[in-house]
Amino acid sequence: VLSKNIFKSFICTHTQFRFGPGDTVNALSDDGTSSAISLLRPFVFFGRTYNTIYVNNNGHLTFDQPWYSYIPYQFPTSGGRDIIAPFWTDLDNRNNGVISYKQYSSGSVLTQATQNINQYFPQLQFTATSVLVATWDRIAYYPVSV
Ligand SMILES: [Ca+2]
After folding, report:
1. Pair 93, 57: CB distance under 8 Å
2. Which of 87, 90, 135, 145 is most deeply packed, by most CB within 10 A?
3. Distance from Cα 22 to the centre of ligand 1, integer Å
4. CB within 8 A of 47, min separation 6: which ones?
C-alpha cells in the first residue's frame, strides 16, 4: 500500500521492510493504537495534508486521530475518514506478536523504497526522502485463547 505525495515521501507496507531495533512498539491491547506519530515530512493523502499518523492495532493507519474499528468496510468510501488499511480486521496482540513502527530519513530503507516505487511506477521518477514502516508481526485474530 502506498501513496505518493508532493514532498516525495511515502507510506508503504511491504514484506521487504522488517521491524527491528529502534522500532516503537504498541502496547498490548485488543483494539489499541500507537501514540500520535509526528511524521518526518507532511504527507498528502488524496489532497489532504497530514503531519500526524497513528498505527492502529486492528491493521490500519489513520491520520487525524486513532481509530479502533475492527470491522472493515468496502472501498472506495465516500466521506468517511482517510485510512490506509493493509491488514484491517480484528487483530489482538495481547498474547502474541508485535505491532511496531519506525520512520527513516536516510539509509537502505529509503534506497529500497525508491527502487520499489520506480520498479512498479516507472513514470513517477520517484526518490524517497522519508519512509514510515509499520509492522503487524505474527498478530493473532481476536479472541486470543492461548
Ligand atoms: Ca482487535
Report:
1. yes
2. 135
3. 25
4. none
User: In the chain, what is the straight-line distance between the N-terminal and C-terminal CA atoms, in Å?
Assistant: 31
CA–CA gap between residue 132 and residue 2 (Å, rounded)? 11
pTM of the model: 0.86
Task: Return per-residue pLDDT of the chain as tens, 146 residues.
Answer: 344 443 334 455 456 677 778 899 999 999 999 999 999 999 999 899 999 999 999 999 999 899 999 999 888 776 678 999 989 999 999 999 999 999 999 999 999 999 999 999 999 899 999 999 999 999 999 987 55
CA of 100 to the centre of ligand 1 (A): 15
Ligand 1 geometric centre to CA of 138 (Å) = 14
Domain residue limits, the chain: 2-137
Query: 63 CA to middle of ligand 1, Å?
Result: 19
Give distance in angstroms: CA of 94 to centre of ligand 1.
9
